[in-house]
Prior knowledge:
- This protein has 183 residues and is mainly α.
- The chain folds into 2 domains: 22-89; 112-182, Arc Repressor Mutant, subunit A.
- Helices cover 64% and strands 0% of the residues.
- It contains 8 helices and no strands.
- The chain has helices spanning 22-40, 44-61, 71-89, 112-128, 131-142, 147-154, 158-174, 176-182.
- The chain starts with 21 loop residues before the first helix and ends with a helix.
- Residues 1-16 have low confidence and may be disordered.
Amino acid sequence: MTTPVCTSASHGMTRPSAYPSFSSYVRARQPVLLRTARSLTANPSDAEDLLQTALAKTYVAWERIEDHRALDGYVRRALLNTRTSQWRKRKVDEFAVDELPEPEPVPGDDDPAERQALHDAMWRAILKLPARQRAMVVLRYYEDLSEAQTAEVLGVSVGTVKSAVSRALGKLREDPELSLAHA
């Protein structure tokens, strides 16, 4: 993955024109970028807000981005940075309860409703992960980035990605709702 380069002047260089305008880029890539934003938040409305904020940051930097072929990486980085800022600023609105809700019914073979229940259980389990682990799992397995690409997007080492993803997968394997769904 190529990291987009921002400069204050283009120095007479011609920029690759993968997308002739910001609006053409947004029209072409919005569904994929929205899917990424949704995987970083628990609420679809928050995902749309997150994407809008990241796109606003991209719009401001549009003329300084030399390699428009690397825009997805730039926007993903903006999504993650914005989401990280939100995590740091957020107030805690979770609270402990004495009783846990009843688990979802155990999924069967090819029933679409049961497949959806398993999908929902997986997302609930992913949302229980710490924010950093969740971001790494999403980038590795939902965005299908390599360990090196994930490390680059998050600004961490490949070893950090490997160990954090390993711990996250261990937590997912131990999630009682998923173990019931897999039985």
